[in-house]
Amino acid sequence: MAEPTPRPTITYASAGVDVEAGDKAVEFMKESVRAATRPEVLGGLGGFAGMFDASALRGMARPVLATSTDGVGTKVAIAQALDRHDTIGFDLVGMVVDDIVVCGAEPLFMTDYIACGKVVPERIAAIVGGIAQACQVAGVALVGGETAEHPGLLGPQEYDVAGAATGVVEHDAVLGPQRVRAGDAVIALASSGLHSNGYSLVRAVVAAAGWEWERHVPEFGRTLGEELLEPTRVYSADLLALVRDPDLDVHALSHVTGGGLAANLARVLPAGLLATLDRSTWCPAPVFTVVGDLGGVPQFDLERTLNMGVGFVVVLPAEQAQTCIERAGALGLPAWQLGEVTSETGRDGGDSNGRSDQSDGVPVVRGAKGVDGGAVRVVGDYRT
């Protein structure tokens, strides 16, 4: 009787998962993670769960927890193409933590998740190092995370990142539509560039034009890839300083992410109020005009996809507008008055899904992402 053919031995490593590489990545990232902490953090890296001492909340009258989760989107494809991974962490932290500040909450702690086709310890450490640095800027603790190797699902050079964060705010201090009044001023805080939204459009434009990431673009003064990897500005600590400023009474904040300026501002306005924004108050950075011109992107589509140079919006009483601009400038945030809020009359049509009707021939955006909010219209032409 013939001997049976021996079956091959299959191990976790031969299936594509390198446990030792994962352990090595943890060793590489320890120092950067250790620096992204707060006094309330209990335990260290490597536990099954991150722990945070919440006893300080007992001193609050009615603490409200705020949480947010997000990723970076297809911007990671450019980081992978250029093999540069130390900045993508700022994009992740900005997208997650700055959403929490919108309601006035102080971000407390964050966790991250990295899925990759192959664990390259140096690459994972660079990603987490960027996350940790951004957490330090935001004043939030990085209390844990996970790196998962997914061979066969992702290519060896591919990865994606996501994160979640938790913050807290007193119930009486929650910002939002309930505070906004007719007559309020709308203040813009400049973005650092594209941030982390609209990269599917940007990549499609670049591909159609046949441009390489290494192409030097005179308008940028650097390569295309360098411009597109400009990290997202992390606003949270500076925004909290503005919210807590005794000379300011901030009513609402809006994080300008997917959907663009008008739709995101409409989400934090109450129904019945209209914000009119004036394009002539600012000149968008060259990256926005280059993308628009290169791809022949219609202005409406460009504005509902990219932030156009406005990363955050502050709504507060008109008499405090100049003080807010000056305080923001002192924090290193270029700011200007973008427009004003008025009572809306003669509403005709529209809905709460970011769609538009017309006001004096100008498109009006109402709400977004299911929010039955206020209305926003953008008038004029950009400054040149």
From TrEMBL:
Protein name: Phosphoribosylformylglycinamidine cyclo-ligase
Record-linked NCBIfam families: purM (TIGR00878)
Gene from which this protein is expressed: purM
Keyword entries, A-Z: ATP-binding, Cytoplasm, Ligase, Nucleotide-binding, Purine biosynthesis
PurM-like C-terminal domain: residues covered: 181-345
Annotated Pfam families: AIRS, AIRS_C
Pathway(s) the chain acts in: Purine metabolism; IMP biosynthesis via de novo pathway; 5-amino-1-(5-phospho-D-ribosyl)imidazole from N(2)-formyl-N(1)-(5-phospho-D-ribosyl)glycinamide: step 2/2
PANTHER family: TRIFUNCTIONAL PURINE BIOSYNTHETIC PROTEIN ADENOSINE-3, TRIFUNCTIONAL PURINE BIOSYNTHETIC PROTEIN ADENOSINE-3-RELATED
Native source organism of the sequence: Kineosphaera limosa NBRC 100340
